[in-house]
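User: Before I run my own analysis I want an independent prediction to cross-check against. Here's the chain; please return only the structure tokens and, at the end, one sentence I can use as a sanity check.
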Amino acid sequence: MAALALAGCTSSDGLAANYGSGQGYVSGDGAYLEVPAAERGEPIAFSGPTIDGTALDSADLAGRVAVVNFWYAGCPPCRKEAPDLAALSSELDDVAFVGVNVYDGADVARTFNEEFGVEYPSVLDIAAGAVQFAFAEAGAIAPNAVPTTIVLDREGRVAARISGLLRDPDILRTMIETVQAE
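Assistant: Structure tokens:
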């Protein structure tokens, strides 16, 4: 695991380039799920420290559609999808984007964000896994792989999930637009 994490810090980014080539990495399959508004569970309440040391609370997202991405720096599909997520977050300024780093400390996470142009906040969820637990406790639409990308509606309820690599940013964009139109 340490070799994988260290390899993720190289500048050639061989991890992302080789993702899907049988290198032995296991992740979600990119399957996605959309939940009709009438079938969504309770709002997800979560909080945690961000990379820059401030606190982020799900209450800060109230009234906005939000995208929550679970990731870590040495994860090949996380590295591959990061530029697409960064671009979408810049383009969709009325949507809140939040990262949840499940493995790295602040310095590694900050370096990853700088490398891939990620400007939205990321919660460090390595100590207790409280953010992951909050989503898992909510029921069947939990972050079940890394990466996992979840769309929350304006009430903070899980509206959609992509389990694994975001293969096409237009899929996420469509999910977001569907929730925005509600």
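Sanity check: The chain has one domain: 29-180.
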